[in-house]
Amino acid sequence: MSGKPEKKRKVSGWGSTRKQAAQGAPAAQAGDATLPASEPELELEPLKENSEAALEESEVQKENLQEPEVDVKPLFLSRAMLTGLADAKWTEEHDTILEHFAQDPSEPILTIFIDPCSGLKLDLGMPVQTQNQIVYFIRQALVPITPENFEATVQFGTVRGSYIPALLRLLSGVFAPQVFTNTSWPESIRNHFASHLHRFLACLTDTRYKLEGHTVLYIPAEAMMMKPEVVFKDKELVQRLETSMIHWTRQIKEVLSAQETVETGENLGPLEEIEFWRNRCMDLSGISTQLVKEGVKHIESILRLAKSSYLAPFMKLAQQIQDGSCQAQSNLTFLSILKEPYQELAFMPPKDISSKLPKLISLIRIIWVNSPYYNTRERLTSLFRKMSNEIIRLCCHAISLDRIFEGYVNSSKEDLHGCISCCHAWKDHYLQAVQMHTQFSSRGWVLDQTSIFAQVDAFVQRCKDLIEVCDCQYHFARWEDGKQGPLPCFFGAQGPQITRNLLEIEDIFHKNLYTLRAVRGGILDVKNTSWHEDYNRFRAGVKDLEVMTQNLITSAFEKVRDVEHGVLLLDTFHRLSAREAIKRTYDKKAVDLYMLFNTELALVNRELNKKWPYLEPYKAQYSGQAHWVRILRRRIDRVMNCLSSAHFLPHIGTGEESVHTYQQMVQAIDELVRKTFQDWTSTLDKDCIRRLDMPLLRISQEKAGMLDINFDKYKTYPHLISLYLTPSTYSVFGSILFPNCPKSLIPIF
To answer: Locations of Low complexity compositional bias (predicted)?
Structure first.
């Protein structure tokens, strides 16, 4: 078998033979007609040569597949101009990405850059984050990249800084001058290409400087070195210059109409208004400076000679730019007096903002009275509306939705009430300023109050909705300040079931609360109309919970038989009584509680009305009766003390009537005790106390060494002995017999 060079020569020779055969085909065809039909063997020789050549080609391809692939890495790295590339660490991963890009025709672009965090990066596409420098390789043909086709297949370059400014620098500094100075192209093609290039450069220039908030006019450099008397005769060039002036006109119109955009911004504040006029002043001043540049004046003179119809509208807009620049400077001067006071508000809580509002309103009134351009009804209404937006924004910063939905009820309600107070103070100060202005100024206050406070009123209502959310967390989930209160303990046979029902209510409430928290859009955004639907859905769920709670309270009171038990239940459900629907059930159960008290009073009254109360045999008649009456009083006193200590009970007519009945009964009991004492004292002799000086025992006269009882056998003494031998007598009448003597010093008879 011959060597590879020989085979290549054979293949190339066969290729040249094919070319020669193709070139000589017409002659062969012409000569075929003269060949005799008896010589077919002449056609076998080319077939044999074709088969041999095909075998040789297949052998060459097999050997080429076995050859090692040529490394294209140096071709890429030698063309990568990137700061820090020499010091960067090249890894096997980079080799893999580079090889994949070179061999896969479907990959259109490869970028090389140095990421501040990850170091050297190769990416099959543009980087996601902005980079300072990027080297790009763009595939122009869907073929693998080899050293032979690299120059024809790959387009490469380096982009530094932002992409759009880099593109503008590249086009303006490299490609555009070559296109505009090229005279080798046909005139029609050059004019067409130059026209589109001017349009693209105008849009690119406008976009590049709009990113910085400026307006820059693109000045074509094509006619700058030519005299106007020569240029205006070139209709194609004049048409391209008119296209640039049309673009200038469009840019200036956008700048002049920008005020309408900022006035319709519903979320902007006074500081944004000041910043707008500062940028507008700089923008208009910049455009005014550009309008007097040599390039613009040169194009104006060319179009003036060409009698262009686009020149007059442009000159009119240019004059409006001059007037607008003066107006912007005046408005900025007056609005600047608001900057410092509004910057102070940014660091103040809503509850302290109200003290600064009168000064701000006075400053706005100064602008109204003295500004020559900013004193229109629309602009002043817009400024007050922006002040409302600023107050709403400051209040929104003071409200933490996460704390609200995480159960910080007390502190969140305090913040919400502070925001509501701030909004009300803003409206009150505004109305006071209107009244003063009307009294002392000839100008009427013609501002649209509804437009100024529409969002403020909506924000106040939103705060009230959030306060209701906080109240619901306190009522149905026991949240106070980030912690849940202890679960109430219910005693009795129904206690466990009541606890389970209460936990079920809490679980349902937490699900509704989670749904409300996940609403789409901003909760504090007053323009978010979806809040009303979500909040109404939450309110419907709360109403269902209120019905469940009413049923729970009713079932809990079914087994209540005494006042003390009922007071404990009412104390447990007291936090829910703030809700109107539950309050009705709560008040009804309070009435039932007082009815139990009335029943108790009726039972005591029936006992008091007995003519002969039952007394124990060891009790004396009068002291026993007084002791029995005092027991009845302690019975109703215990219930009354329980009701009196229940500060959470509502004030209802039934309760007042029950208290009045109790007071009357206590007065009657006290009177009965005093009457019993008086009846008892009426049975005593006046000198009965002296009989106590007689000893109870004496030496027996009849039996020596024995003691006899020395009781009075006739009158008072037995009563006194019963008085002082009976413990109940001491407890009832001791304080009456010895009113000024402590119990420890009352003599024992």
So the answer is: 20-39
Q: How far apart are CA 698 and CA 707, in angstroms?
A: 5
SS3 letters across 268-285: CCHHHHHHHHHHHHHHHH
| Span 483-538, pLDDT tens digits | 888 888 887 788 899 999 999 999 999 999 999 988 866 888 888 888 889 999 99
Give 109's DSSP letter. E
Cα distances from 45 to residues 9, 40, 51, 399, 479, in angstroms, run 21, 10, 10, 98, 103
What is residue 292's DSSP assignment?
T
Cβ partners under 8 Å of residue 131, min gap 6: 113, 114, 115
d(CA 576, CA 471): 10
Do residues 341 and 394 touch, judged by C-beta distance below 8 A?
no
- The residue ranges of DSSP E strands in 36-191, in sequence order, are 109-115, 119-123, 133-139, 154-160
Structure tokens at 643: 């009701």
Paired tokens of 631: 């027991």
pTM beyond 0.90: no
Residues 6 or more apart whose Cβ sits within 8 Å of residue 171 = 197, 200, 201, 204
Give the Cα separation of 372 and 356 in Å (integer). 26
User: pLDDT for 108-152, tens place per residue?
Assistant: 999 999 888 888 989 898 888 878 888 999 998 899 999 889 888
Q: At residue 408, what are phi and psi to the nearest 5 degrees?
A: -85, 75
